[in-house]
Amino acid sequence: MFDICCEAFSSSCLLLPSFEQRLASEKIPLGKFPLQTGNLPMNRCLLFSDKQEILDEAKRMGYGTFGVGTSLKADYCADSLEDESVYRPLFTSWSDKTEGCTLFIFDMGNVVIKNIHMLKKVARKWHLNEKEFIEDYQSYNSPMMDGFISTSDYWGHVKHKFGITVEGEPFAQEFTPVFNEEMVALLKRLSKEGKRVVCGSNTFAPHWEIIERMGALALFDKAYASHEMGVSKPARQFFEYILEKEGCKASKAYFIDDYEENIESASKLGIKCLLYVDGYAKSASEKLNEVFGS
């Protein structure tokens, strides 16, 4: 996803005023190519153009590219900019409205609860090389989240690879989440208003048990955990599973998450979304307040 954008159109392809106004209403900066981005990485910038040579140049510079017109090669393409749905999901600060939604799906980590990171703490406690341990963990993260292997199986692997004997369950011992009060308040308000609120989380058993004990699952009408479902985000099957169980069409669902790839996957299915993370133009709290109010 992108934080700012720029344009380079030929004189025969004027930037649609409605497009410019829509970006301004969402506080998405729009400038001329090339941009002076300051400390913002080029890959957070999206160029809109109808000229292939400009698109190619921007691509070489590290920009994301959006070709407007036919027969153009770019990261994203559309015949025109009249339909905002073709570019709306590409911006971190753009959040969908909730009109027509009857089901609200919330991620858990970094959304409903905070202080969830524990890998560095595990590495320090067991005197493991932090970089090697985290890199190794990444190969096992998805299988554990999908429920294909247990965390005890993973610690057996750690014992074999790193030559240590792990006692207890480090993933639980070093996992000390706390509630995100603004999201808890929103959940309670939606429930009071009669909305259906569910959780859709990538997790595994040791964390899920702690989350349940702290009372986080009690905030929801239903909680869906990846390791119990057998599939994790951003796979489309994760969202399809929840929609089927809830008997809800994608167009009637709203999803809040802090990972761009999860938002992109849900958005492609027609689910309305909010990316709950600080962006260049808006903070996570600002976006939440704009959509749901205080």
TrEMBL record:
InterPro entries: HAD-like_sf, HAD-SF_hydro_IA, HAD_sf, PGP-like_dom2. Pfam families: Hydrolase. It comes from the Bacteria. PANTHER family: ALPHA-D-GLUCOSE 1-PHOSPHATE PHOSPHATASE, FLAVIN MONONUCLEOTIDE HYDROLASE 1, CHLOROPLATIC. This is Haloacid dehalogenase superfamily protein, subfamily IA, variant 3 with third motif having DD or ED. The lineage of its organism: Bacteria, Pseudomonadati, Spirochaetota, Spirochaetia, Spirochaetales.
